[in-house]
# Entry
Amino acid sequence: YRKAASATGLPTFLLVGPSGGGKTAFTTLTERGTVPTTHPSTTPLSIEALLPDPHVPASSHYRSPGDPAFERSRRFIILDTPGHGKLRNYATSTLADPGNVRGIIFVVDAAAIDEEAGLNEAAEYLHDVLLSLQKRYTNATTSKGPKEIPVLIAANKMDLFTALPASSVKTKLEKAISEVRNNRAKALRDAGAALSGGDEVDEEKEWLGEGGEGSFEFDEMREIGTAVDIVGGNVCQGKNSGDVAGWWSWIGEHL
Ligand code: GTP
Ligand code: MG
# Structure
């Protein structure tokens, strides 16, 4: 699947996030314009799509529809990955070697965020995604730093009355990521003390964002070239398609 994606050379948007968030539903809606019945994914899925009207790729703002360059610029790949905790190796390996990845879309069920288990699972996964982008940035050998990779947090299922608004999804995730960050640092210190009688583990490299004990904010990711946006949407509305215009527009801004 990666070969197929890289062979076209098209800009790729990588879909990650916990199981059940709506990644495959969004992928199919973007590819075919219809809402499918989905099952939890066990394999990654790579599809080619066209940015739907009226969204315009940022690179084509001055071109007119019908211009072949305009039409070409609307093409992109979505790489949908399984969200189950035991099947994240597909996402992880792409994050480690992002190739054509132009942006990362972290799809999350905005109703699940209101429950502790759902919030913690999302926060841990998102923490790891951001940490791998940070490592890629700090390990880069060029002085310019690697190409910037933005992240969209797609707060899905806004049609459900239990869904939290995007602004609450943001603050809840920031708070939960602060805890993940503290817990990971403590675990590293404990492991380090047990292993080598106090030898320093490379703690700094494993700490997401800026140093210090304060709480985590997505804005800290700007330092590593990653802008994080949060946009609400819903892939479906009953059996019909819902409203994901904000996500397509975000894709257009990075296309
Ligand atoms: P994994 O493949 O396990 O990682 O999950 P996924 O993120 O691909 O989730 P999937 O697209 O399979 O969607 C999970 C369930 O959520 C399906 O039953 C979808 O129909 C449902 N779903 C997706 N989007 C929405 C939405 O906007 N609103 C509601 N109410 N349900 C949705
Ligand atoms: Mg899926």
